[in-house]
Amino acid sequence: MTKVLSAADAKEALRRAAAEVVDWNGGTRIGDAVRALMRTNVVRGAVVVICSDGLDVGEPELLSAEMARLSRLAHRVVWLNPLKEDPAYEPLARGMKAALPHIDVFLSGHNLASLEAIGEAL
Q1: Residue 76: how many CA atoms within 13 Å on its side-chain side?
Q2: Alpha-carbon torsion, ordered 93, 97, 99, 104, to 10 deg
Q3: Which pLDDT tens digit goes with each residue over 65-97?
Q4: What do you get for the CA distance between the two ends of the chain, in Å?
């Protein structure tokens, strides 16, 4: 994406990026991403930080199963969801509902101060 985003005009760069990325604004397949991470064998004993709004477009059963595996192997699972900054936020998205039981620390991660809270939480 670096080359695509290097256009001098910001609007043109975003237009090119949207044309280049097939699933732009399509949501995330978080379960597939966690499964791919698990295949790397780097999570055992690690602190894993996931930054996502939880608006998953994949199968919630897959996300739940992969998060359960991740939770068993990792030392801690931290999830940063920028939507959590809103006091009215409730984790109702199916991805968040599937992942939440397997998360050790659930923070907003919406600004620098909230990111500093991660250190305190860990």
Answers
A1: 12
A2: 110
A3: 999 999 999 999 999 999 999 999 999 999 999
A4: 33
* Amino acid identity for residue 96 in this structure: M
pLDDT of residue 21: 66
Q: Answer yes or no: is 49 within a domain.
A: yes
Q: State pLDDT tens for residues 13-60.
A: 778 877 776 655 567 889 999 999 999 989 999 999 998 999 899 999
Contact between 37 and 64 under an 8 Å Cβ cutoff? The reply is no
Residue 21 within a domain? no
Structural domain contains residue 110? yes
Q: For residue 58, what are the domain limits?
A: 28-121
